[in-house]
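In response to the reviewer comment on reproducibility (Comment 2.3), we provide here a single inverse folding case reported in full, input and output, so that an independent group could reproduce the run without further information from us. The structure tokens appear first.
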């Protein structure tokens, strides 16, 4: 069925042609009763006899019929006219990310904002048993500042499986290693594709490339991309690290949920609520990185990328010294303060400010003086009082019942381990009410773990 401008089909008048995809043509239409502008999607005539393509088209209708989210292009209804299936969908006045990228990469903040919305859509879909399986720039439409996720044609919903004889499902440049290998895709496969998409959006380069389909497939399975901050030094380490974690070859070492990935990215956005960045997971021993990416690892874990004033060696030393006192969260503080400190001495003092014990703080500063003296450290005030986060004007400093904080630490430790002590202590310094205390403590927990903590804290 090919439609002409002015033609009326099923109560919709065709007013324009929006384009064609791999499965069908999309028209701009007007409802003849309500006057609302919609998009009509139909199968291409030459594909109508393909049962595989027909299954995909019907699959998209059934999946979208059960999804309603501001970042997912909505299905209004489906029609069957002259034995031809039609989808009536939300009309999106904008362009997809693939077209936007023809003008070059986007600013990091803009790209992260768009991808954060994609992750919001995926969080919603994943919770309903839907895996998209084809996340890529061409399937992300931009309408003003809002993102719309498109094309659920090969999405998996529940136990439904779609296959294409002799082919893998998805787009090779953004496809997860498990999809390339023909294994079932789960929500973490979508997160791999999201990370690959964000990589291209803010660097202008595909993370994985090759001169043939086979070369691309082999690289997806065996090679890690060059870290984004090496493509563009202006990309913040927290964003670069999140992308690299999202593209881990082993799904168990990626972010495990879209919400977790989104939380890591949103800590970078200037207008988002401040959240603790999520420490990258140690890479698996089976990593096969290209020569350029072998520097993206030390002692079996992801290093802290060098900041403008500090070498990776210095940051590595600071991390090891601080981690011996406060544990794994040390990496977060080193990364954070290395971006703002104006000198090595200032960086050491800021890091020392995160140590609550006076003796341990002085020991840390003396270790820095010893280990980094050759790095123009200068004089450190090893007996300086602890640096504390300033209290907002007019705010009252809370005095917490030690027994209450101890119960909170014990309850949280049962969920996340030793890091609980640091998280509760920091939350206690910032919170101005009991509700705010519990909110800060549980900010990065999954809903299940949050409920578990709140039910056990007393």
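Designed residues, in position order:
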């Amino acid at each position: 069925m090919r439609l002409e401008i002015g033609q009326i089909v099923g109560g919709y008048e065709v007013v324009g042609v929006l384009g064609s995809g791999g499965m069908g043509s999309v028209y701009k239409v007007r409802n003849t009763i309500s006057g609302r502008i919609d998009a009509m999607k139909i199968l291409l005539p030459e594909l109508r006899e393909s049962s595989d393509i027909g299954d995909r088209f019907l699959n998209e209708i059934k999946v979208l019929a059960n999804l309603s989210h501001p970042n997912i292009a909505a299905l209004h209804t489906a029609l069957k006219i002259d034995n031809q299936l039609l989808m009536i969908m939300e009309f999106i006045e904008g362009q997809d990310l693939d077209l936007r990228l023809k003008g070059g990469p986007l600013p990091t903040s803009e790209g992260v904002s768009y991808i954060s919305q994609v992750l919001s859509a995926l969080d919603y879909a994943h919770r309903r048993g839907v895996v998209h399986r084809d996340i890529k720039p061409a399937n992300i439409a931009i309408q003003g500042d809002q993102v719309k996720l498109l094309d659920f044609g090969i999405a998996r919903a529940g136990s439904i499986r779609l296959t294409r004889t002799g082919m893998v499902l998805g787009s090779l440049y953004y496809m997860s290693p498990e999809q390339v290998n023909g294994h079932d895709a789960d929500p973490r496969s979508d997160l791999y594709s999201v990370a690959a998409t964000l990589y291209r959006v803010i660097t202008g380069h595909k993370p994985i490339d090759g001169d043939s389909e086979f070369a691309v497939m082999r690289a997806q399975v065996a090679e890690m991309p060059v870290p984004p901050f090496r493509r563009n030094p202006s990309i913040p380490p927290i964003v670069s690290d999140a992308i690299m974690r999202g593209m881990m070859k082993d799904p168990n070492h990626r972010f495990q949920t879209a919400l977790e990935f989104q939380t890591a990215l949103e800590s970078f956005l200037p207008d988002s609520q401040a959240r603790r960045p999520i420490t990258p997971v140690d890479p698996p021993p089976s990593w096969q990185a290209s020569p350029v990416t072998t520097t993206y690892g030390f002692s079996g874990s992801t290093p802290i990328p060098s900041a403008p004033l500090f070498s990776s060696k210095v940051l590595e030393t600071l991390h090891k010294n601080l981690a011996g006192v406060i544990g794994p969260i040390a990496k977060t503080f080193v990364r954070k303060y290395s971006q703002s400190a104006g000198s090595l001495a200032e960086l050491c003092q800021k890091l020392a400010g995160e140590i609550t014990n006076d003796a341990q703080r002085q020991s840390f500063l003396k270790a820095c003086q010893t280990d980094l003296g050759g790095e123009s450290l200068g004089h450190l005030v090893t007996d300086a009082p602890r640096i504390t986060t300033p209290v907002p004007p007019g705010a009252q400093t809370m005095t917490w019942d030690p027994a209450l904080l101890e119960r909170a630490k014990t309850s949280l430790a049962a969920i996340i381990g030793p890091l609980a002590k640091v998280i509760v202590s920091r939350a206690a310094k910032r919170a101005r009410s009991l509700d705010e205390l519990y909110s800060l403590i549980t900010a990065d927990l999954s809903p299940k773990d949050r409920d578990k903590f709140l039910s056990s804290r007393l």
